[in-house]
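protien #1 (seq + structre)
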Amino acid sequence: MVLLFNIPSLYSSRIQKIFLETRRKSESLEMQPLNRQPTDNLGTTPSEATLEPWDKFSRTLIKEWAALRILSSLVLATIFSMFQISGLWGNQLMMVAALFSFAALIYGAVLTIYVNGWRDDAGLPMWAKGIREPFRIGFLWSIWILMALPAIWTIWGIIFFFLSVMIVWVSAQGGNDNSNAQNSAPFTLGELAQPTAPPSSAVAHPWFIPLFAVAMMYLILIMYTLWGLSRRHQSTDSSLIVV
């Protein structure tokens, strides 16, 4: 969970609060007919009361993912602008940062499209049922990780970006005094950030290919999980959103 910055557990705690809120609202609405006077209005229906917290949560998620997409876009724009500088195109740490930021951008866009389409009387219960009965693969995948992926990959993209900038800056400051020490080391982060490599070597670097495979794996898991949730759309009842 350290690599995930504990973000999935934050989403889990938020969901638990929503379940508690929907349960309290459902119980209070069930008690209303017993205490209502004949002249009272019907008021809010149980379905409307339990859907409201999920609608607010969906709106919050969409806003968060939109903000993360903007941040990832800014990081990508900065990286590609720095690539215009002579010699920086082969900086492999920047290539990794670009991969993280681009993946976060894609994840956020896909999740926003799906969740935005579920914000109706049929979609919100289906979304809640998917959270109650999540598809899990050990600690590698859950509904909480799905929600947190845009934030996780955005943070890693920013970390690698600043790391590459700092290493390039330190290498430039060191000048020729550090060249012998770098050549004697078998492998260092400084070598990874050297801006002299051609573009093809950055893509073929051992760091890049596994990260690209992981990014594609998570994209497949996102699509598979969302597809599984969509299959429940027709048979979902609004009572499923109350625990």
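ok now protien #2
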Amino acid sequence: MTFSRLDELEDLFQNGIYKSAQWMLNEEQEPLTKHRLLEMVADSLARTGQEARSFRYYENCLYLNYGTPEQMIALRTKFAQVCVNVKDFFKAGQILEIIPMDQRTIQILKLLCQSRQPRCLEAVVALLDYGLGYREIEGSLNDQDIKTFAAAYFDGKKGDYEQGLQKWMSLGKKYPSSIEIARKLDMNIVESMDIYALADTLSSLSKQRPEPLAISMDSRHLVSHQVQGIFLMETKKYEDAIKAFRNAYKICRDVLTYEGLVKCYLHLNRMTDATTTYREALTTIPKAARSRALAGLVLTQISNGHEKAEEYFNQALQMDRNCIEAVYGLSQLWQNQEKLDKAIKLLESYVPYNRSEQIHIRLGNLYLQSQNYERAQRHFTSALRYKN
């Protein structure tokens, strides 16, 4: 089919002459061309406010599956966006959940946040781990309780454990029965599944060292164990955190689980375990930039591993220039080697894209070490502003 006929077909659809357009579409037999035509028609219908009509064409296009993996992900993203526009959140989640975790963009994760399924919690965690702030994802969340979950997790990431624990406790009091929140997240969950159980008790709570609220969810649910592991790790209960991450490991061997295990092993000086775990991560998820950054993190702790660590950090940044774990790891390595100018230049280049408390603290410490007190004060002040 020539480009003039492609234009003719699009004009027919845009002008509502559907029978003639459908006849032209049916006449096309070459699969790749048909795939392109179906996608074009679906896009045209979606653009002109006919989202419901576009569904059939997007579905047929997905069924043909003649694009590259990247093109198919882009197609699924467009289709899911249309579903969200017409408030078919469940269908949006079904379309996107097949995309591997390490290939989910921020846009995909934000769409999953609106899917009102258990996977929306995993999407929330992934977005916050990308470095986004709570305010940046709040608009993508349809449910107040999911917003509370996101805010609590974000509090934990920025080290405000007291505020985070208060939010977990409010959820625990609201949902003493695990199935209540499960129903709210996914109306298709039956009572026997018992996926979520938010605990409403907390022992030995103190402002100095608050105990993490254990989210006792079903053993099949990944996020519950990861969140529990993160709070245990941040409150220096590394052995208990390892148990939580091990439970997550049994469900899914993803980057966040490997990171949790490695960081706990490093805190306990269990270098053999840390080395074995990062090597497994490289084998299991070789295309994930964060697995390369994780390798660099371990190798920075080994006296003869610094050169290899720098190599891994650079590989991670080549795979994903926004891999903040690699940015922080490489800048810390250079700081340890007293290559302060290189570390500062690297971090400063990421400030416009990662306005967070942590990046300003790191820059403040670097400028302090290089005796540039004015700039150090500026960054520490910025860090306090983001914390507040």
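The CA atoms of residues 300 and 333 lie 7 Å apart.
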